[in-house]
Design a protein that fits this description.
The complex is a heterodimer. Helices cover 0% and strands 48% of the residues of chain A. By secondary structure, chain A is mainly β. Chain A starts with a strand and ends with a strand. Chain B has strands at 5-12, 19-23, 31-38, 46-50, 58-65, 70-78, 81-82, 95-101, 110-118, 124-132, 141-145, 155-161. In chain B, the strands form two sheets. An eight-stranded antiparallel beta sheet of chain B has the order 1-12-3-8-9-10-5-6, with no helix packed on it. Chain B has a four-stranded antiparallel beta sheet with strand order 2-11-4-7, with no helix packed on it. The chains are: A mainly beta, B mainly beta. The interface between A and B is large, with 59 and 63 residues. Strand 1 (2-4) of chain A pairs antiparallel with strand 2 of chain B.
Chain lengths: 182, 164
Amino acid sequence: MSPILGIVSSRRGAPPGAFESIATASLSGVNTATFSSIPATYKHLQIRYHGLSASGATPNLELNGDTGSNYRYHGLYGSAGAVAAGGSLNTYYNIDLGNYGGSSIYPEVIIIDLIDYASTTKLKTLRSFFGNDRNSASLNDVGLSSCLWLDTTAINEIRIYTSGAGNWSAGATVALYGIKGA
Amino acid sequence: MATTYEPIATTTLGSAAASITFSSIAATYTDLRVVLVCTTSAATNIRLRFNNDSSTLYSITTLYADGITASSDARGTLDALSWTVGGGSSTTIPQLYAADIFSYAGSTNKTSLLERSEDKSGGSLARIVGLYRSTSAINRLDLLAIGQTFSIGTTATLYGIKNA
């Protein structure tokens, strides 16, 4: 590691940190992945998604196996000259994480924060920052979303899956991290 | 569980510089995150380049808001990822730039999520997805102040994020 022109630089070892890897799943050849038995020992969770899919499948999220109409979702999208907003005010059965799916060549990436996931008194709020640039103005997208799960149960299971029947391609991964409180 | 979000290097400029480079980045992480807080010698574009590769393999799609309007844009055939959407840097007001570089050591094309926040003249923010059409592992980042210099006190920190 060689910072150049930095004048003052430092190489430090890792201090005791607050951001820990819980689990990682390869998504190659499958259309669903589940993180289960998530411990309640963190304050927040973060999901980092690196998606590749020949079918352009859009990733979706489901919490604690709840397939009911207990989710809300709003998004703000930028797509090659157009800005749009959308979402679901009423019933929605899962959380849509992106406007377009990725391709098998150009990854779609998403960072999702699950706030206060272990609370047993609060409804659960999520936010995401997602993007996919395919070097093609008509297919690119970047955006932000906020999501709500209308349940006060602690989140102990997260399932991510593709819309439709498409599987993810080689190189697709999803990783779950825990963020500690003070 | 092991700590997985580690500072790799921090640079604070003691003299003006046209670029800040992190090189010989180990392939031991899954993702990288770089955070830049800068002022510059004159308003200019800030860009992020990988592997010192200035060929036109970069493209971006942007979402920008200035408090009044929101807009989006797509740009291709760039020689680096443009971080300064909707306006230039400032000589006096520090601006925050951050980028998450996914699967930087992998063999796929490289997608990054970039952020820019500033309150120079009314304020604005941008969220950007950037593509580097290369399957080579990234081992070098260059933070560029195009045609200008980063001012003394500019800071840049590179973090590595590991998977389980």
